[in-house]
């Protein structure tokens, strides 16, 4: 059974009159990979820096493996950290970069050599000991930064947007390598990112942040499928926003369709928004007129490789609607710009919130 490893209680951070973090409570389990996800300026990096001791919280406490590190200096905290910029020493060899922390701890030279060799093998860069950072690609440099962070065998790994400077192909490959390595080592890991796909693909749990607060904590599936707020629904992945009106506390009018919803504190005539993913739809054949369906004309087709994102305008909704088609579905329905569509969205896949 997982046990709590890192506990944040009531973390506040003020910069003058600006509240960067507002009462953050969070517990991480031993061996978990947790992603802090949110837009720029939401407080995720500030929170990571407070955990690392690079910033000091205005209020609140931090416990690591049962030990109070709320005001402990950096050298008394047990973690390794990897920054977006790699932060390798350009004048040191790869061996010297990885060994840096071990040398400071006065580890015997024989053990240092053994540890560096082992880490280079782990990150797939054996034989690079004598090279300098400038001789390596961006992806290789980030692997060296990861090896350096792991050199002292920390029990906590902090990753501050470590892949954002890499191109898409390298980023995808390296994030899977980090995930595999993290599982292999069983090291508790926090990754800061603003990339939803990155968080969804590797995290055990996602902490979605906005304006210095935690909006939702959950597994990738929970956050994607059952968002707890309009912000989470619209920020994590693509989503359609359908305008609706309340009939009563358990029923809404969506276009010409009446939909039963879990009971909410809503009044008749109140505006609500139904959020639904572009992959959750049903195409109604043209020869089967359905008065409750959303009708429209395909305006744009965005080819995404294995899928295409279809945009169509419907008089039943203020905003254009999106549908995600596989290549086979494209062929089946003969999707083309100008084609008429009839679409139904399943009630079970909708998340209903009050309109802003």
TrEMBL record:
Query: In the record, which residues are listed under signal peptide?
Result: none
* UniProt keyword annotation of Cell inner membrane present: yes
Residues in ABC transporter domain copies? 6-236
- Cross-referenced InterPro entries, in alphabetical order? AAA+_ATPase (IPR003593), ABC_SmlMolc_Importer (IPR050093), ABC_transporter-like_ATP-bd (IPR003439), ABC_transporter-like_CS (IPR017871), AminoethylPonate_ABC_PhnT2 (IPR017666), Mo/tungstate-bd_C_term_dom (IPR008995), NA-bd_OB-fold (IPR012340), P-loop_NTPase (IPR027417)
Q: What is the recorded name of this protein?
A: 2-aminoethylphosphonate ABC transporter ATP-binding protein
**Molecular function via GO:** ATP binding
Q: Which PANTHER family match?
A: PUTRESCINE TRANSPORT ATP-BINDING PROTEIN POTG (PTHR42781:SF5), SPERMIDINE/PUTRESCINE IMPORT ATP-BINDING PROTEIN POTA (PTHR42781)
Origin species, per record, is Ignatzschineria rhizosphaerae
Q: Which PROSITE patterns match?
A: ABC_TRANSPORTER_1 (PS00211), ABC_TRANSPORTER_2 (PS50893)
UniProt entry keywords in alphabetical sequence? ATP-binding, Cell inner membrane, Cell membrane, Membrane, Nucleotide-binding, Translocase, Transport
Q: Which Pfam families match?
A: ABC_tran, TOBE_2
């Amino acid at each position: 059974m997982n046990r709590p490893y890192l506990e944040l209680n009531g973390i506040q951070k003020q910069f003058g009159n600006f509240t960067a973090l507002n009462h953050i409570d969070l517990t991480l389990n031993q061996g978990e990979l947790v992603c802090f996800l949110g837009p720029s300026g939401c407080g995720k990096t500030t929170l990571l820096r407070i955990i690392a001791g690079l910033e000091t919280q205005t209020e609140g406490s931090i416990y690591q493996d049962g030990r109070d590190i709320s005001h402990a200096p950096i050298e008394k905290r047990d973690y390794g950290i990897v920054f977006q910029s790699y932060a390798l020493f350009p004048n040191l060899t790869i061996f010297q970069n990885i060994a840096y922390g071990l040398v400071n701890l006065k580890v015997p030279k024989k053990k240092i050599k053994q540890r560096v060799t082992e880490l280079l093998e782990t990150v797939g860069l054996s034989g690079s000991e004598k090279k300098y950072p400038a001789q390596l690609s961006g992806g290789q440099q980030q692997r060296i930064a990861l090896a350096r962070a792991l050199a002292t065998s920390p029990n906590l790994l902090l990753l501050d947007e470590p892949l954002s400077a890499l191109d898409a192909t390298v980023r995808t490959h390296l994030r899977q390598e980090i995930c595999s390595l993290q599982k292999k080592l069983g090291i508790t890991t926090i990754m800061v990112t603003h990339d939803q796909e990155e968080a969804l693909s590797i995290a055990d749990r996602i902490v979605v942040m906005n304006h210095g607060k935690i909006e939702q904590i959950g597994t990738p599936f929970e956050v994607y499928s059952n968002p707890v707020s309009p912000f989470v629904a619209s920020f994590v992945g693509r989503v359609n926003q359908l305008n609706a009106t309340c009939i009563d506390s358990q029923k809404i009018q969506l276009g010409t369709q009446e939909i039963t919803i879990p009971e909410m504190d809503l009044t008749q005539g109140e505006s609500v928004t139904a959020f639904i993913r572009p992959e959750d739809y049903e195409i109604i054949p043209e020869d089967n007129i359905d008065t409750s369906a959303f009708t429209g004309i395909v305006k744009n087709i965005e080819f995404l490789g294995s899928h295409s994102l279809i945009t169509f305008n419907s008089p039943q909704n203020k905003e254009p609607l999106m549908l995600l088609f596989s290549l086979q579905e494209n062929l089946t329905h003969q999707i083309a710009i100008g084609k008429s569509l009839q679409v139904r969205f399943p009630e079970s896949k909708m998340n209903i919130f009050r309109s802003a």
